[in-house]
Amino acid sequence: QVQLQQWGAGLLKPSETLSLTCAVYGGSFSGYYWSWIRQPPGKGLEWIGEINHSGSTNYNPSLKSRVTISVDTSKNQFSLKLSSVTAADTAVYYCARGADPYCSGGSCYSNRYDYWGQGTLVTVSS
Amino acid sequence: EIVLTQSPGTLSLSPGERATLSCRASQSVSSSYLAWYQQKPGQAPRLLIYGASSRATGIPDRFSGSGSGTDFTLTISRLEPEDFAVYYCQQASAFGQGTKVEIK
């Protein structure tokens, strides 16, 4: 049974860097994309980006200048850093396993997210 | 960049009724690449359907997906009390804005 468990700071001040980590238990770490998706309070889902086991990344263009996703295959973990946060970055952040990727125009995307972490509410407030 | 538009925004139905949710893509997508999720308050989304019509593991057969090109549909044949939730479609990095299925 695959489980994703995530953790990180829940309260940040504007201009700080958001940092979250997600550990994967069970299942294979390779062959999948490891993803971050966020959801502002009361709103829909926004894809942040993803990484595969070899470190190949793909980011949301609207966040690309501030986002770094990294992977530690020795620990079956992957991490998200989002710099220079503002109140607009307040959201529940989810890690997820992306399956069945397809590639187009040099970018690869997951076709489904089949396992999700529990979510972390990150609030940005002065 | 593909934009997914879901309709209606809210669907008010009674238990036992049939729910039909729509997801329209701004450009044609392969049906292999369309997924549906269910989200309940305070919970992470749950994968229901992938490849437009394949049910994920453990999903009851009252949930079905169909469609191709730019128009896709999620159907819940008979609503159970636990089915009242928000539903999202997804293709690659795009999510629809969601359809809330509420109790009438």
Write up what this structure looks like.
The complex is a heterodimer of chains A (126) and B (104). Chain A has no helices and 13 strands. Chain A is an all-beta fold. The radius of gyration of chain A is 14 Å and the shape is globular. Chain A starts with a strand and ends with a strand. The mean pLDDT of chain A is 94. By secondary structure, chain B is mainly beta. Chain B has strands spanning 4-7, 10-13, 19-29, 35-39, 46-50, 54-55, 63-76, 86-91, 94-95, 99-103. Classes of the chains: A mainly beta (126), B mainly beta (104).
Percent of residues of chain A in helical segments?
under 10%
Helix and strand element order of chain B = EEEEEEEEEE
The Rg value of chain A, from CA coordinates, equals 14 Å
Backbone structural class of chain B: mainly beta
Q: Which spans of chain B of ≥5 residues are poorly predicted at pLDDT below 50? A: none
Throw out a few tags for this protein.
heterodimer; A: 126 residues; mainly beta; seven-stranded mixed sheet; four-stranded antiparallel sheet; 13 strands; B: 104 residues; three-stranded antiparallel sheet; 0% helix; 56% strand
Concise account of the structure shown:
By secondary structure, chain A is mainly β. Chain B is an all-beta fold and 104 residues long.
Summarize the helices and strands and which ones pair or pack.
The complex is a heterodimer of chains A (126) and B (104).
Chain A: E1 3-8, E2 11-12, E3 18-25, E4 33-39, E5 46-52, E6 57-59, E7 67-72, E8 77-82, E9 91-99, E10 102-104, E11 107-109, E12 112-116, E13 120-124
Chain B: E1 4-7, E2 10-13, E3 19-29, E4 35-39, E5 46-50, E6 54-55, E7 63-76, E8 86-91, E9 94-95, E10 99-103
Parallel strand pairs in B: 2-10
Antiparallel strand pairs in B: 1-3, 3-7, 4-5, 4-8, 5-6, 8-9, 8-10
